[in-house]
Amino acid sequence: MVAVLSMTMTFAENENAASLNSTEAYNMTVNMKKLAKALNLTTDQFESVAEIHKTFAAEMMFAAQSKGEERNKMVEKAINKDLAYMDYILSKEQYRTYVKLLNVTLLNRGLR
Q1: For residue 91, how far is the Cα from the chain centroid?
Q2: How far from 90 is each of 12, 14, 33, 76, CA to CA, in Å?
Q3: Residue of 111, 43, 45, 36 whose CA lies nearest to 74
Q4: What is the chain's Cα-based Rg?
Q5: % of the chain at pLDDT higher than 90
Q6: Quick one: how far is CA 47 from the chain centroid?
Q7: What tens digit of pLDDT does each residue of 46-60 get?
Q8: Which of 55, 40, 61 is nearest to 85 (CA)?
Q9: How many angstroms separate the CA atoms of 72 and 33, rounded?
Q10: Which residue, of 9, 26, 68, 85, is most buried by count of CB atoms within 10 Å of its CB?
Q11: The pLDDT of residue 14
Q12: Which distant-in-sequence residues (6+ apart) come within 8 Å of 82 by Cβ?
């Protein structure tokens, strides 16, 4: 009985840890000052990019709560929306840099 209970609790802990790690991958919080420096943002751009990114981060965390295909659809929608807004705000050079940074982030977190 004790062995079964121990195995069950260990499995539950591993499952919770996997779920937590999975959810953490969707946390898109970034240091906005570093992003601003990397993109060489103006003051006006900084404010707009911060608001767009805040929305993107919230949408990604919301997607993290979904499962399977629904999660994938929500992630793609959030990414496409973010890129569309950033394309409008950023110069072509800034946008290319942003896309590179976003792709690396998504790859590193196993989301692409």
Answers
A1: 22
A2: 45, 42, 16, 21
A3: 111
A4: 18
A5: 61
A6: 19
A7: 999 999 999 999 999
A8: 55
A9: 29
A10: 26
A11: 43
A12: 52, 53, 55, 56, 59, 102
Cα–Cα dist 89/99, whole Å: 13
Contact indicator for 61, 27 with CB cutoff of 8 Å: yes
Query: For residue 39, what are its two tokens?
Result: 């993109």
Amino acid in the structure at residue 83: L
pTM score over 0.70: yes
66 token code pair: 């979904």
Residue the block writes with tokens 């998504």: 106
Higher model confidence: residue 60 or residue 10? 60
Residue type, 74: M
Q: What is the pLDDT of residue 61?
A: 93
Say which amino acid occupies 98: Y
